[in-house]
């Protein structure tokens, strides 16, 4: 097969169906940009999980005098020194515990003032109203229930709280947004495939005379189909290239410059450029193979060779 002939046929086909080719390029670009974005979103959520789950603490809040009057869990009174020593000793014996940090009422009051000093409630609080607590770093954050089972309901313990539960709600929201993006991506892929099939059909119909002559002179089926398949592949590859450009531009302007989220949201450990660059070959390969396969199967039905 002469490469010059195939290339000329590709150019003719793209020019003849310029409007539909443009629609294919745009739909492929948008769908694959969403595809790449959903992959990066998954990486971002996993990175955040690894970063934050490693920092979460389990807190054992101890009863104070105020709790003894109002909280059923502290009906036996404020925590005693012996109870605190026993709790600390039991924590030190547990294999799941990595470190234990004690926070006094004065320290809790100081931290509260630092974080919520502007709150109207802060001015009415006193250190004796704050709760003493043990902050526990676990070797495996998933083992929170071991601590909760061992200390919930114990004398002197007001409650056992796991910061991981707060993060789980955030990650559920992020995962929900990611699945929504994937649903839109799937819809856009279906639209792109339909456009590719229709473009191939129109192109094959507009050149039915040429293909008929090629059949009569003994041209092989692949020789006749190749220009149509490559037209779809070229249009898809252009769309894939645009999708890659969208992702690179978004990463550059949203994270590093422009909005500069990396500087404004320092608590979030954003994924790096390596995560973005590793997705580009997959996007380009998909943009090339998806239209080519769609065109191949469409031609089997609409181009009788």
TrEMBL record:
Compartmental location: Cell membrane
One cellular component term from this protein's GO annotations in UniProt: plasma membrane
Transmembrane segments annotated in the record for this chain: 21-41, 179-200, 221-254, 280-299
Predominant location category: membrane
InterPro entries per UniProt: ABC3_permease_C, FtsX, FtsX_actino, FtsX_ECD
GO BP of this protein: cell division
Membrane topology of the entry: Multi-pass membrane protein
Domain FtsX extracellular: 56-160
Keywords: Cell cycle, Cell division, Cell membrane, Membrane, Transmembrane, Transmembrane helix
Pfam families xrefs: FtsX (PF02687), FtsX_ECD (PF18075)
Residue stretches making up the ABC3 transporter permease C-terminal domain: 183-301
Function: Part of the ABC transporter FtsEX involved in cellular division.
Family: Belongs to the ABC-4 integral membrane protein family. FtsX subfamily.
PANTHER family: CELL DIVISION PROTEIN FTSX (PTHR47755:SF1)
Subunit structure, interactors included: Forms a membrane-associated complex with FtsE.
Protein name: Cell division protein FtsX
Organism this protein belongs to: Streptomyces chartreusis NRRL 3882
Taxonomic lineage of the native organism: Bacteria, Bacillati, Actinomycetota, Actinomycetes, Kitasatosporales
